[in-house]
Amino acid sequence: MAVATPSSAAILKDDLDLVDARRAEAWHASRSEARSLLELRSHKRTSTATATPAPTTTPTATPTPAPTATATATATPAPTATATPTPVATSTATQPVSAPVVAASSTGFPNASTTGVPAGVTLTPSGSITISQDGTVIDGLQITGTVTVNANNVTVRRTLIKNTGSIPVRVNGKAFVMEDSEIDGQGGGNPAVAYSNYTLRRVNIHDVAEGPRISGGNVTIEASYIHNLLQVGSNHTDAVQSTGGSNIVLRGNTIQVNNPQTSTYGNAGFQYGEENSQIRNCTVDGNLFDGGNYTINGGGGGTTGAACTFLNNQFQRDFRYGPRGNLGPNTVWDSASNVWFDTKVSLG
Predict the structure, then answer these.
(1) Which residues pair with 213 in a beta bridge?
(2) Smallest Cα–Cα separation from 159: which of 191, 187, 136, 175?
């Protein structure tokens, strides 16, 4: 049986179909390979692009709250500390020669530490002064000479008077006040202050022939220190003397008519009588007395009618005859409260 052989044309057609099939496979393969390559590249791009968001983490660094730290620095109120008024302390830095610091008195009564010009006050030198203007205030002077007051309501404070005349302070006006001051009689001064309408408060009076004199009244001497009086000639030295007047108060003073430096007794711590006028409304209260022939001596000029009350006083024993003498019938003496300084026992 004969076998049919394909013609050359059929063979050629079959070869072409085979070639076309293989080209198609290659084309599809290359296309899929290209697609895979593109997918791979796009994957790499997306992966690297998403990896770059690391900068987004840097914004967290921007919230660095350094400025808030500077805000707390402004809260430091150091400038208010500079407002402390330290210059005030400099005003007390100067220590005057005329106001030395003295140990406080063990007696509890006035002494040099509680009277006179306070420590730390600078004094301005001056000569004698005469005051003629009402209401004048003299403060912080060192007067070498005397003071004459011809006006009312005058005040002298924190002032040292170094006397060069017969009367260191002469008051011719009304309502004169001297306080926190010192009268150094320098061996003169008879009396230290004259004669009425004055108040002495925390005044240190020494080295005078006579202390304050009262004639006419309206006198208060309080919290003052009268001491170291000097015997001049045959003078009857009195720490305080009244020859008449009313509204007289001696309160809370140290009154020492004796002078330990010269070993003299003096005449009296308080001498009172009616040589010039009656004495009424007179109170001597809470003082420390020492010295004198009689420390308290009434009956000045031989008179007996002076009315004065004594209470709460203490007496030391440096007298010649006794703590009191010559008291008239109008004198009120409180036996219970007038006592010896050392024992606190009544004088009787």
Answers:
(1) 241
(2) 136
pLDDT digits (tens, 9 = 90+) for 4-33: 444 444 433 444 454 354 554 543 454 544
247 vs 299: which has the higher pLDDT:
247
Residue 139 token pair: 């403060």
Its pTM stands at 0.71
348 CB neighbour count, 10 Å cutoff = 10
Question: Shortest CA distance to 223 belongs to which of 178, 253, 193?
Answer: 253
* Distance from C-alpha of 290 to C-alpha of 321, rounded to nearest angstrom: 12
Q: Which residues have CB under 8 Å from 170's CB, separation 6+?
A: 146, 147, 148, 149, 194
Q: Residue range 69-97: average pLDDT?
A: 36
The two tokens of residue 12 are 């050629």
Distances (CA, A) of 223 to 149, 200, 311: 22, 8, 16
Q: Is the peptide bond before 195 cis (omega within 30 degrees of 0)?
A: yes
Average pLDDT, the chain: 80
Q: Answer for the pair 285, 312: CB distance below 8 angstroms, yes or no.
A: yes
Residues belonging to the chain: 348
Q: Tokens at residue 269, please?
A: 């711590």
